[in-house]
Write a structure and sequence with these properties.
- Keywords: Cell membrane, Membrane, Transmembrane, Transmembrane helix, Transport.
- It is a multi-pass membrane protein.
- The protein has about 260 residues and is an all-alpha fold.
- Helix content is about 65%, strand content about 0%.
- It has helices at about 10-35, 50-75, 80-85, 95-120, 125-130, 150-175, 185-205, 210-220, 220-250.
- Helix 2 (about 50-75) packs across helix 7.
- The longest helix has 29 residues, at about 220-250.
- It is globular and about 55 Å long.
Length: about 260
C-alpha cells in the first residue's frame, strides 16, 4: 500500500470553507438567538448564556472547525481572513473569490437552518427574532442597532482594529516556522472569544463579513441598510493586518512564499 497523501482538490477546499463558516454562523448566531436571553422576557434570566456564552460559542465553533477542516482548506471561514492572508503573501489572490463565495454560502445556510428551526418555535419566536434584527450587526439606537447605543464611528474603529488584531494573530500562530500548529486553533478561537467579549456591546461583533451577511438577510431592512459597514471595514482591517505583517515580521528584501493556505494541522 502506498502512504502517499492525495492533496485536497479545489472542491474539497471550498466545501470545507462552506462547512466551517456554516458551523461558525449556526453555532454563534444560533447561541445568540436561542440561548442568550433564555427564557425570553425573564428579568432574572436564570438560564440565558448572555454575552459571555455567545462569545464562547463563536470561539468554540472556530476551534472545532479549524481542527476538523483546517487541514483541508486552511480554515479561513471569513472573507476578511482570506483577503488578509492574500495581502500577507500566504494565499493566492486568484483563489480568494472562490473562498469568499463558499464562505458566504456556508454562512447563509447556517442562518437558514436557524430559521427552519424557528418556524416551529412558540410564541412567535421567529417573528420576534426577526423584529429584533436576527442577531445582526448594527450601530446607533433602535431594535437592530448597537446593543450599547454606539454610533457609526465606534463600529468602524472596532471592526478595523479588532479584525486587524485577529488576522495578525492568525498570521503569527500559523507561521510555517514560528507558529505552533497543534495549538493554533485554540489561540485563534480564544482570540475570537476575546474580540466578542470586547465588542458585542459596541456593534454585536462582526470581524467577518460572511457572518454579517448571513444574519442580515433575515434581519430585515434595518440590518441590511447597515450591512455595508460590516462588509467594508472588516475587510479593511484584514488587508491592513496582512500588509503590516508582511512589512514588520517577514525578512526585509524578500517576499514570503505564497502558500496554498495558512494550514492548521
Amino acid at each position: 500500500m502506498s502512504d502517499t497523501t492525495i492533496p485536497p482538490t479545489t472542491v474539497n477546499r471550498l466545501v470545507a470553507e462552506a462547512l466551517g463558516t456554516f458551523l461558525l454562523v449556526f453555532g454563534g448566531v444560533g447561541a445568540a438567538l436561542f440561548a442568550a436571553n433564555f427564557p425570553a422576557d425573564s428579568e432574572s434570566n436564570p438560564l440565558g448564556i448572555a454575552f459571555v456564552g455567545v462569545s464562547l460559542a463563536f470561539g468554540l465553533t472556530v476551534v472545532a472547525g479549524a481542527y476538523a477542516w483546517g487541514p483541508i482548506s486552511g480554515g479561513h471561514f471569513n472573507p476578511a481572513i482570506t483577503l488578509g492572508l492574500a495581502a500577507a503573501g500566504r494565499f493566492e489572490w486568484k483563489k480568494t473569490i472562490g473562498y469568499i463565495i463558499a464562505q458566504v454560502i456556508g454562512g447563509a445556510l447556517g442562518t437558514t437552518l436557524i430559521v427552519l428551526i424557528g418556524i416551529f418555535g412558540t410564541d412567535n419566536w421567529l417573528a420576534n427574532a426577526q423584529d429584533g434584527g436576527f442577531a445582526s450587526n448594527g450601530y446607533g439606537t433602535g431594535d437592530f442597532g448597537s446593543p450599547g447605543g454606539f454610533e457609526l464611528g465606534a463600529a468602524i474603529i472596532a471592526e478595523v482594529v479588532l479584525t486587524a488584531i485577529f488576522v495578525l494573530i492568525i498570521l503569527g500562530v500559523t507561521h510555517s516556522t514560528r507558529g505552533t500548529a497543534a495549538l493554533a486553533p485554540l489561540a485563534i478561537g480564544l482570540t475570537l472569544t476575546l474580540i466578542h467579549l470586547i465588542s458585542i456591546p459596541i456593534d454585536n461583533t462582526s470581524v467577518n463579513p460572511a457572518r454579517s451577511i448571513a444574519a442580515a438577510i433575515y434581519g430585515g431592512p434595518g440590518p441590511l441598510s447597515q450591512l455595508w459597514v460590516f462588509i467594508v471595514f472588516p475587510i479593511v482591517g484584514g488587508l491592513l493586518a496582512g500588509v503590516l505583517h508582511r512589512a514588520l515580521f517577514e525578512p526585509k528584501g524578500t517576499l514570503p512564499p505564497v502558500q496554498a493556505e495558512a494550514r492548521v494541522k
